[in-house]
Each structure stands twice: as C-alpha cells, then as structure tokens.
C-alpha cells in the first residue's frame, strides 16, 4: 500500500498511536467532528492484524458482554459505504453456526437462547432444516443456527477506503514512526518517535499488541495475549456458499467473496509470537483447519488453496476490549484487546469520539474499563 504519507507535525490536538482498524476508525469519527487528528504508525498503516484478518462480522460468535457493541458496529459497517463514498466490501448474507455432535448441538441451542435474550435474531435449525437451507453442508452437521445479521466486509477494500476517508476528513497519517516514549506534560503528552517528537493534548492508544508497551510507558497495566491466527484462501470457485459459516466447536469461519474465492479461518494457531515478530503457518494445525472446513462443506475438497498466512490478534485476558479513559489520565484513551476487534472497531471509534467530545458514551462501557488490571495489581500490592 505504498503512498505518500504525511510528515510529522510538531503538535496536534489528538494523537492516535496505531494505524490499524481501531486507530483509523477513531480518527474517522474524531476528524469528522472537526478535531485535529494525527495518526502515528510504527510501520505501514493496515499492515498488521487489520490487513490480515478474515473480515467476519458475526453476532453469533460474540460473547454476551460485547453483543450491544457488535450490534451497533454492524450498522456502522453498513453505513461506511455511504458515509465514506467507497466500498468496504460489506455484505450481510446471514450466518450459519453449525454443530457436528449431539453435545455441540446442545451447546449451540443454549448459546442461541442467550443470544435471543440479548435481542439477536438467532433461529434454531434442526438437522433437516439446516440441510434444506444449505444443501452444501456435510452430513456431519447435526444442527445449525441462522442469524440474518451476520456478514462480512473485505479488509482488502476496507483498508484503503478507511485510510483515504480519514485523510479526506482532515486527519494526518504519519507512517514509519514508532512511538518509543510517552511523556506527560502540563497540557497533554509528548510522544517521542523514531521520526521525531509530537506534542498532543489528547492521546488515543490503538496499537494492537503494542498497546501493552505504550501502557507501560504511562504506568498502566494493559495485558494482552498475541494469538497467531492462521487464514487461507482458495482459488475462485462457482457460487458455493451463500452464508457465512462458523462452527460452535470446531474453530472455523468460511465465507465466499463475490470474486468466488473462499476464505478459510476461525483462529487455528500458527507458530511464533509478538516478541519475536514471527508469525508462521503451523502445518499440522493448518491441516486440521482444512479438515474441519471440508467436513463442514465437502465441496471445498475440490478447490486449491492459493495462499495461507498468519497475523497477531491482540486479546485481553478476559477477551473484552480495553475501551475508554486510562486510569489517572483524563486525556488519554485506549481502544484495543477485543476478540473480534475488526468487527467492533467502528463502534469503538464512535464511542471514543463521544467520550472525548461529550464526556460520555452512548452505550455502557464500564465493563471495558482500561483500568481493570491496573486496579488488580494495585490491590495485590496493598493486601
Ligand atoms: C488471521 C486473523 C483473522 C482475524 N479474523 C477476524 C475476523 O474475521 N473478524 C474480526 O472481527 N476480527 C478478526 N481478527 C482480529 C482483528 O484483525 C483485530 O482484532 C483487529 O484488526 C485489531 O485492530 P487494531 O487496529 O487494534 O490492531 P492492529 O491491526 O494490530 O493495528 C495496530 C497498529 O499499531 C501499530 N503500532 C504498534 N506499536 C506501535 C508503536 N509503538 N508506535 C506506533 N505504532 C505502533 C502497529 O504497527 C499496527 O499497525 C483476526 C485477526 C487475525 C490475525
């Protein structure tokens, strides 16, 4: 994605650390609200998880505490096409979540019940109904749930669209500027980067797995695991899947793009780690990923895999996002650490912009308090 990025200004009203989907979405809402925004990115924007992910936007796979966010985020993804004037590859074909044993079918039914309690339109399909609706499912599928809201967008389209949109909205984007230190100042912060320093009144930390290190610079504990998620894509095929497919027990996501290619993911773990920077395919687990995929949709056996890759997914220990104000700093905020962070990024950006502008968010976010682990450490020290 080579392009002419901006040069580092000496100061800005709001500095956002990280040019992934979280940072760009925050920049989008803040710049449109007339704030002066500069994104400071260590390498190239959209170069990490945001550019490597599967693009699944599924309500059915979300845990209960984030369902309200996930609902709102879906609407925002849909609106992006109109508000940005560019395609992000959004589609809402609905999603099937399948179960391949009696025990998994029970778990699926309980999960669907909980989702309906939270207002999701999740429909139960017994074996016959599932196969009638989706004759391409394999015989191992015993039951499924259908959620009409599930969909996807294309990270390949969304990245350039978001970058272009935030810059048109007036935000600056500085690449190849790694933040090495954050200093508190009387009226804000000073970021020391590998491309010079920048002062800001308000700081937003959206640095994916790098968020932990930025937190340490400010004395805040923001623990994150960096999963090494694998993904692969097939050659183009005639229309085969007309839904997003996920699996309650099998770590699987499948979707077919309009160009016919089918994305196979779900979160099987590759090799490496954030510290070493290695993110490699683990061939044994990759074969298991393909086995679950082909058992679920047998026609996939006829297709060739043309590419497989892996990326770092930063997840907080409780899998909930860090979203809100940093403890002890009224002008520092964070958006990171959510499982399914691509799906949730637009609503995280919207809610942060509301917090910064109005002092309150339009959805409850106390469960996502970025201070929750700092408080645990402080409590342990005093007891
Ligand atoms: C293979 C894979 C598949 C996935 N599939 C899905 C999916 O289908 N649906 C879904 O919702 N989620 C999915 N995810 C998760 C999703 O991709 C992430 O949650 C999301 O992209 C996180 O975005 P982010 O902007 O927080 O982080 P990132 O995309 O990691 O961006 C953070 C940015 O911060 C920069 N940075 C870090 N440290 C510094 C520093 N010191 N100074 C300056 N910049 C810094 C990095 O260079 C990076 O560009 C998947 C992840 C992977 C890896």
Describe the structure.
By secondary structure, this protein is of the alpha+beta class. The chain has two domains: 11-51 and 156-224 and 318-382, FAD/NAD(P)-binding domain; 95-148 and 226-314, 2-Layer Sandwich (D-Amino Acid Oxidase, Chain A, domain 2), CATH 3.30.9.10. 32% of the residues lie in helices and 27% in strands. The strands form four sheets. Strands 1, 2, 8, 9, 10, 11, 19 and 20 form an eight-stranded mixed beta sheet that branches. An eight-stranded mixed beta sheet has the order 5-6-4-13-14-15-12-18, sandwiched between helices. Strand 1 (11-17), helix 1 (21-32) and strand 2 (37-40) form a beta-alpha-beta unit. Helix 1 packs parallel to helix 6 (155-168). The longest helix is centred in the first third of the chain and has 18 residues, at 67-84. The protein is globular and about 65 Å long. The termini are far apart. The model has no long low-confidence stretch (mean pLDDT 96). Bound molecules: flavin-adenine dinucleotide. Flavin-adenine dinucleotide is lined by residues 17-23, 40-43, 47-50, 52-56, 178-179, 206-208, 210, 229, 231, 265, 311-313, 336, 340-343. The site of flavin-adenine dinucleotide (FAD) has 37 residues, from helix 1, helix 2, strand 12, strand 18 and helix 9.
């Amino acid at each position: 994605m080579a392009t002419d990025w901006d040069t580092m200004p000496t100061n800005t009203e709001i500095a956002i650390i990280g040019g992934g989907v979280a940072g760009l979405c925050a920049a989008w809402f803040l710049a449109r609200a007339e704030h002066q925004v500069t994104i400071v990115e260590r390498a190239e924007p959209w170069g990490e998880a945001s550019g490597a992910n599967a693009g699944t936007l599924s309500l059915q796979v979300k845990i209960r505490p984030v369902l309200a966010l996930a609902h709102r985020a879906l609407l925002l993804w849909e609106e992006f096409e109109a508000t940005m004037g560019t395609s992000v590859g959004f589609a809402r074909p609905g999603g099937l979540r399948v179960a391949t044993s009696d025990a998994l079918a029970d778990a699926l039914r309980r999960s669907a019940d909980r989702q309906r309690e939270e207002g999701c339109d999740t429909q139960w399909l017994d074996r016959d109904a599932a196969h009638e609706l989706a004759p391409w499912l394999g015989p191992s599928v015993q039951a499924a749930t259908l959620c009409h809201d599930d969909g996807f967008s294309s990270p390949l389209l969304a990245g350039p669209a978001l970058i272009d949109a935030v810059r048109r909205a007036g935000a600056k984007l500085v690449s190849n500027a790694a933040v090495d230190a954050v200093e508190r100042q009387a009226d804000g912060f000073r970021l020391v980067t590998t491309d010079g320093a920048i002062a800001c009144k308000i700081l937003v930390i959206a640095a994916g797995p790098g968020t932990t290190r930025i937190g340490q610079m400010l004395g805040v504990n923001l623990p994150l695991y960096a999963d090494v998620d694998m993904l692969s894509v097939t050659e183009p095929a005639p229309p085969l899947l007309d839904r997003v497919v996920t699996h309650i027990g099998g770590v699987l996501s499948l979707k077919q793009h309009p160009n016919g290619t089918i994305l196979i993911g779900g979160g099987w773990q590759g090799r490496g780690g954030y510290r070493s920077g290695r993110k490699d395919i683990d061939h044994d687990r990759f074969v298991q990923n393909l086995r679950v995929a082909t058992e679920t949709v047998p026609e996939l056996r006829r297709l060739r895999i043309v590419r497989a890759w892996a990326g770092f997914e930063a997840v907080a220990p409780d899998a909930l996002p860090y979203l809100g104000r940093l403890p002890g700093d009224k002008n520092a905020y964070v958006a990171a650490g959510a499982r399914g962070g691509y799906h949730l990024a637009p609503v995280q950006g919207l809610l942060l912009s509301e917090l910064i502008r109005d002092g309150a968010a339009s959805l409850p976010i106390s469960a996502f308090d970025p201070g929750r682990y700092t408080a645990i450490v402080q409590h342990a020290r005093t007891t």
